[in-house]
Amino acid sequence: MAELRLDASAFEPVTSTRDVQSLTRPSLSYWQDAWIRLKSNGRALFSLYIVIGLLLFTVVGPLLWRMDPSAQDLDQVSQPPLANRGARVVLPYQPWDGLEARATSSSSQTATARIELAQPPTSQSVRLTWDPVLGANGYRIYRNIYDTDGGGALGLPLGEVFQPDLVSFEDRLDLRARTYYYTVVALDEFGGEFSDHTTIAVEVERVITAAQAAERGLVASAADVAPGDMLLLPLHPLGTDYLGRDMLARLMHGAQVSLFIGIVAPALYVLLGILYGSTAGFLAGRVDQLLMRFADFVVALPFLLFMILFKIAFGIGPGESGILPMLVALVLLSWPATARLVRGQILQIREEGYISASRLLGARTGYLILRHMIPNTMGVILVTLTFAVPGAIFTEAFLSFIGMGVAPPTPSWGSMCNEGIKTMLTHPHELIFPALFISITVLAFNLLGDGLRDALDARMRSRE
User: Fold this and answer.
1) Distance between CA atoms of residues 110 and 194, nearest Å
2) Closest listed residue to residue 276, CA positions, set 297, 300, 259
3) Residue 176 to residues 31, 78, 268: CA-CA distances in angstroms?
4) What gap in Å lies between CA 169 and CA 187, rounded to an integer?
5) Is pLDDT at 252 greater than 90 in this prediction?
6) Which residues are 186's β-sheet partners?
7) In whole numbers, what is the pLDDT of the chain averaged over residues?
């Protein structure tokens, strides 16, 4: 049989095309996919930037703005933001003996006290003089910060003059750079007020002496300035409070207290709830029922009552800051909600196949909880923690507002609101700024928690 020999020339090349499947996107881990979904949520991402900004405001802010939050600037008390901070240099105060009426005849007297200024009004003193009133046995002087033309109260009674011939008065009571309304009312022989009175509007100018400027560090020495020169007082971008303290510095240091309680307390009681709830969920049965009944008992405890008891136990007296009792009360009474949530997740996960396989391989209870169960509940835990932070911040603000939390002079947003509400009608910025920071912080954490809830939901993972 002849041998068949084939060479390469007997073959023809064959080309073929095959459809090759390719991945439309690279494989992503659970956390990478969650981050992509979080970035696609505009509100949650913007809230994340706000939270980062608040942390920088709290930590880095005091390093950049080094003004002492307890330092008082008595020349700028309750100043609004961007207020005029100029002060004119004047000579030191010189006592004034006042003026007497030049004549007391009825022809020279008037029906009402027509008021004039004896000299330009400054924050050193306002000197008033008026015409004598017919039949007056004395005068009463009022000062108001509102115009009294529309009726109503005449203001603060500054003093009384019981000498008919003395027709002058000097006001040196806490004068500031603003408009005051002075009223002079004539008195009869029994001290009763005449029905007619005169009011004058006085625009007070802020002044300072050369010695005061040198003492406060505005100039190197008193010889560097002369009467009539203009100086700029220290800058307060957000104004000052009723004691002349810088609002920006107090907001920064107040954020350290508010965010410390708002972050540390939830972190501790969420951790406690994780350990408690995971143990109850894994053991199940009677142990689970016993543990959860104790959690129900803790839920029924009144928080405010225990806050008072903890303050007494820690020896915190009236007017003292109760930061530590507040922290302890939050940790000991706020964990059941997290424990219930984690317990429900553990009860679901413990029935999964990989848990049964780990048991067959000899895995211990602690290993199963820490290695398999808790990591698979991290999404729920992070969302719970994010929602717990604004709750703790609001609790601190509420307790400080009613005087049970942080007490002055220690700043916190809640205590600043408590101080600002006293002057909200005349100086609203003292209340608006701390209330605004509380509102922004609570809203940012709530929106971030809502975005994390959607991003960490495994059922919503991208499949494109």
Assistant:
1) 13
2) 297
3) 59, 10, 48
4) 15
5) yes
6) 139
7) 84
